[in-house]
């Protein structure tokens, strides 16, 4: 039996981190879906040393070896040594990735996944950077809700959420790109699906991970300002507006502690109240300005339509206004294929077929864009 050597993460000469984090952090928290540690390692065996905590919303991970999904599993709370592979031929270098499947959970302040290190009988080898760097900003669609589970299953549970069947992963892999994700189910540009004005992505975008909560996550730096200079983003893909459209159909949000209320309103004939639609468009313009501030060279794509097209014109109008006011033409609106009976997944969300259709649209568009612009690395 080969002897395994234990390495703290900061003792490993070569590894690659996917997702928003602080470079060189040891141990390393994985905050978002799609956050991962990737290794190129020889040897016959590899284990990951993990620290897991949660109260009611569990964490799921995937293990990939040489680009193939080997396992998808829920992690129980505690400290674990998780086997990523064993019994393989020792000499070949294997590409291994352990990835957080589930989104940041604001609803569970104990929800946390930390990578302490790895154990192996092999050696570590360099992991190349992706050809491009992409950031995906979204809601439950980008969190992969509905990509697992049967049609008709309506529970809101982590088991049905994933990165492994998400359009962001599919798009990044097709382009040979590195992906960063910031997404949260139920959140919007101006408000959440239930008219809550506090559940909007722009208000948390500038934090490392403002989509979680609790003392543990705070101690890990989740709420600190994110350093956007750590990466050069080639494209930012925003997929927001679905929950803002839902807000127009929902009752007013009310905070019993402060008496504050908020409501996106419809006219008696079912059209949007102009004042409220303008308020949404203002939020889109404001977020575009924020995205450009932190991603000065990136091509910004605002895509929409996987679950309805109610705000298509409003988003397009807001982008035209932003371009007119800023003279920034490095932005585009891209309409996505809508959900059908054949492509729906669990909880009435896009299933894997829908995610794949979206990935195809984005991949074809970005391949064409990059072929014409050839971003410098």
Write down the secondary-structure element order.
EEEEEEEEEEEEHEHEHEEHEHEH
Question: Gap between N and C termini, in Å?
Answer: 44 Å
Please count the beta strands (DSSP E, at least 2 residues each): 18
List low-pLDDT spans.
none
Largest sheet: 6 strands, antiparallel
Number of helices: 6
Rounded radius of gyration (Å) = 21 Å
In round numbers, the mean pLDDT is 96
- Briefly note the structural class of the backbone: alpha+beta
Shape type: globular
Helix content: 10-25%
Estimate what percentage of residues fall within beta strands.
25-35%
Textual characterization of the structure:
The protein has 377 residues and is of the alpha+beta class. The protein contains six helices and 18 strands. Helix 1 (167-175) packs parallel to helix 6 (352-373) and helix 4 crosses helix 5. The longest helix is centred in the C-terminal third of the chain and has 22 residues, at 352-373. Strands 2, 4, 6, 7, 9 and 11 form a six-stranded antiparallel beta sheet that branches.
